[in-house]
């Protein structure tokens, strides 16, 4: 069964990014349709897949990580507005039967992602 999972690693502190709100969108033409929300646990992961089963179809999706709120809670200094506040990761699902792991490696002035398994 196909699914989308994620986790957040705070690469500046070398630990999981906990309590980060993630909004989930499906891209339909020029529209972003909000289809869900999750929050990372103490391990920086979500307790359940972001999408799975019939909810996951071929198409384009976006995960919107509310990183600025996390950095504020962690007491990470930075200018206002923050350089990174909300981080959108847009990705395509070509096969809805596969596992798409879309992690976020976060620091106050940079981020990266990759497709994991």
Automatic annotation (TrEMBL):
Assembly description: Homotetramer.
The entry's keywords = Hydrolase, Purine metabolism
Q: What gene name is given for the protein in this entry?
A: uraH
Q: Which domain of life does the UniProt lineage start with?
A: Bacteria
The record's similarity note reads: Belongs to the transthyretin family. 5-hydroxyisourate hydrolase subfamily.
> Where is each Transthyretin/hydroxyisourate hydrolase domain found?
4-116
Query: What does this protein's UniProt record list under function?
Result: Catalyzes the hydrolysis of 5-hydroxyisourate (HIU) to 2-oxo-4-hydroxy-4-carboxy-5-ureidoimidazoline (OHCU).
Q: Which GO terms describe its molecular function?
A: hydroxyisourate hydrolase activity
Q: What is its EC number?
A: 3.5.2.17
- Indicate what this protein is called per its UniProt record: 5-hydroxyisourate hydrolase
What SUPFAM superfamilies does UniProt report for this protein, alphabetically?
Transthyretin (synonym: prealbumin)
Query: Which Gene3D superfamilies does this one have?
Result: Transthyretin/hydroxyisourate hydrolase domain
Q: Which CDD domains match?
A: TLP_HIUase (cd05822)
Q: Catalysed reaction per UniProt? A: 5-hydroxyisourate + H2O = 5-hydroxy-2-oxo-4-ureido-2,5-dihydro-1H-imidazole-5-carboxylate + H(+)
């Amino acid at each position: 069964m196909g699914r989308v999972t994620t986790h957040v690693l705070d690469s500046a502190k070398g630990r999981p990014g906990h309590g980060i709100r993630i909004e989930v969108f499906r891209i339909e033409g020029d529209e972003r349709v909000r289809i869900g929300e999750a929050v990372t646990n103490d391990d920086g992961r979500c307790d359940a897949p972001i999408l799975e089963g019939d909810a996951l179809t071929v198409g384009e999706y976006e995960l919107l990580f509310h990183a600025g709120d996390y950095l504020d809670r962690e007491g990470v200094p930075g200018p206002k507005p923050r350089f990174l506040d909300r981080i959108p990761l847009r990705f395509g699902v070509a096969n809805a039967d596969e596992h798409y792991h879309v992690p976020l490696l976060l620091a106050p002035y940079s981020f990266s992602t990759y497709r994991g398994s």
